[in-house]
# Entry
Amino acid sequence: MQPSTSCNLFGAYRSAISVKDSYVLLHTTVGCNWGTSIFHMPSKLNDMRQASTVIYNEDVVFGGKKILKKAMNNIINMYNPKILFIISGCVSGILGEDFETEIRKYSEGREIVYIKAPGFICSMDEGQIEAIKLMINLMQCERKKTKSINIIGLLSDDYMVNADINNIKKMLGNKVDINSIIPFDNIENIKAAPSAVLNVVFKGFESIGDLMERKFNIPYIVVEYPYGIENSKNFIKEIYSFFNLEYKEELRKKEEYTIAVLKNIYDYIRHLYSIPCAVFGDSLRASAMKKFLEDELGMDVQVYYERGDNDMNEFKKILKSSAASILFGSSFEREIAEELEISFIRYVYPIFDSISIGNRGYVGFYGVINLIEDLINSFMTMNYRRERQYM
# Structure
């Protein structure tokens, strides 16, 4: 089992906990509760909105209805959340438990979403999608808001997500309004998602755009994650073109500003050309990062692996045999970077050994500056080694 990639429950949890005013009840063992929270909380220590029924041996023998009812009563009485997600895991799945009828008794006057998510059923990415599809059932057709969009595919525990959203808002300016960010928004905004004129769907979440188009007649466009100047320009072009808005002058100003700042460190930047590197991550961010490193910085991406599609042992073997001097990945890849004594940049979920609470995202025109700054600093602070290239 690959860490954080092959567990359906982790994916369902990530989508559910991203709803800002939700509460998540995990009907599973204590390990699942600990694992999900430790990936979610490093930059959000006060954001504890989950509990677990903590299944024990007797619950396997006699069934989990009793502890589930007790947990639901406690959560409703103590927190009274606007929406409660109940996610059942592997044990419940193996036992064939179904609590639809029981949960329906508690649904009067509140939103409760029941998600059956045994970890062995599908991958984390698929679990995320299925949970968001259940949220679509709560959406209501409302009056359209002119020049408004939904952004689909940002989750609360994505690294630097708040800073990335701020940078996206700066790129959009005051010409286009964000109606909802799915699933990282409050439940009322998610319910009102059909008010938007356009869905802006990040790569990997196309099935959500397709479902909302069929159900609510909302067209959608698929966009790359806006790392780098070119991806940022394309992001704005796609959206502005849909609304027939002029974008050339605005993009010219933003690009000129970014280049003017980066000119201060041009001599460092030119030395990045042809430096071998490795990129690991989810398909959305990894592909965008690879494109930025190769097309805009001229770096040599010798090793590229997308999370969940490949054998991690094979990835490590190829990385060790490469000349890569820096690795882009998650906290799980830190160990191999340290073993090889190469630079390491965290940029993709899960990040549990670093925090992000400021406004230093990697997305957009301002994000390019932050990303290059961190990239150069990672080389400047690495140990000297004769056998590998570095700045």
The chain has a mean pLDDT of 92. The chain has 17 helices and twelve strands. Residues 364-380 form the longest helix (17 residues). The CA atoms of residues 282 and 368 lie 20 Å apart.
